[in-house]
Write a structure and sequence with these properties.
alpha/beta, 11 helices, 53% helix, binds SN-glycerol-3-phosphate
Length: 218
């Protein structure tokens, strides 16, 4: 299973990549807007691609299929690791098929139902991004949709990879793992939470205290 970092924050990306904790990065316009400032977003995408050895999702902001394809082709031209992210709309699905015809990998985002995920797979999506946390926020059981998508894709041998997104806490990640998603994208805070365990910290403190008390040296 691949773990992506869901951020455009270069410090967080470099930190996680140097610890070999991530296989790629996902971004969206909101995440980009947080860090882009006055700089050119294309430069930021290039820096992200230079910081991690794996796919980097870059989302289009156009609304029509023609414009999404044009924007997507420009984004894909920036670096071989760019995956073009398109929204799960009728135009987005059309753009997905056309971008795939150009051998450009596509992440179909803002997926909230199994039916939508099946349509994205039929449009040739490389990744489908169901938004678990936002479904939970709306009073649904977001992870049930992820499990249904897994069942549907397996039943029809659909190759689109399930990229669980909008994961808000470690429990979400564990549930996604047990369902058998192909990838999960985590905000930096959740990645840090995954690594840490209070018993690890307590155990390490005890080991080091015992070692210090022994007066020995390695
Ligand atoms: O990957 C999608 C993600 O960025 C959305 O997360 O927490 O804004 O619902 P959230």
């Amino acid at each position: 299973m691949k773990i992506f970092l869901d951020t455009a924050d270069l410090n967080e990306i470099r930190r996680a990549a140097s610890a070999n904790l991530i296989d790629g990065v996902t971004t969206n316009p909101s995440l980009l807007a947080k860090v882009a400032g006055d700089g050119d977003p294309k430069d930021l995408f290039l820096e992200i691609c230079d910081s991690v050895d794996g796919p980097v999702s870059a989302e289009v902001v156009a609304l029509t299929a023609d414009e999404m394809v044009e924007e997507g082709r420009r984004l894909a031209g920036l670096h071989p690791n760019i995956v073009v992210k398109v929204p799960l709309t009728e135009d987005g699905l059309q753009a997905c098929r056309r971008l795939r015809d150009h051998q450009i990998p596509v992440n179909v985002t803002l997926c909230f139902s199994t039916a939508q995920a099946v349509l994205a797979a039929k449009a040739g999506a490389t990744y489908i991004s169901p938004f678990v946390g936002r479904l939970d926020d709306a009073g649904h059981e977001g992870m049930d949709v992820v499990a249904e998508i897994r069942t549907a894709y397996d039943r029809y041998d659909m190759e689109t990879q399930i990229l669980a997104a909008s994961l808000r806490h470690p429990r979400h990640v564990l549930e996604a793992v047990l369902i058998g998603v192909d990838c999960a994208t985590l905000p930096p805070k959740v990645l840090h939470q995954l690594v840490k365990h209070p018993l690890t910290d307590a155990g390490l403190d005890a080991f080091l205290a015992d070692w210090k008390a022994s007066g020995q040296e390695l």
